[in-house]
Amino acid sequence: MHFNILIVDDSAVMRAMILRTLRVSGLPLGEIHEAANGEEALRRLRESWIDLMLLDINMPVMNGEAVVDHLRADPETADLKIIVVSTEGSDTRVARLAAKGVAFVHKPFTPEELRDTVLEVTGIRHDQLGAADGSVVGDHLDF
Amino acid sequence: MTSSALRTALSSATISTFEELGLLFPADGAAPARRGEPLVGGVRVDFDGPWRGTVVVRATAGVLATAAANMLGRAEPPAEPLRRDALGELANVLCGNLLPAVAGRAAVFELGAPRWLSAGDAVGRDVTGDEAPAAALALELEEGRVEVTLHVTHAPVERAEAP
Question: Which chain A residue is nearest to residue B94, measuring alpha carbons?
Answer without folding.
Answer: A87
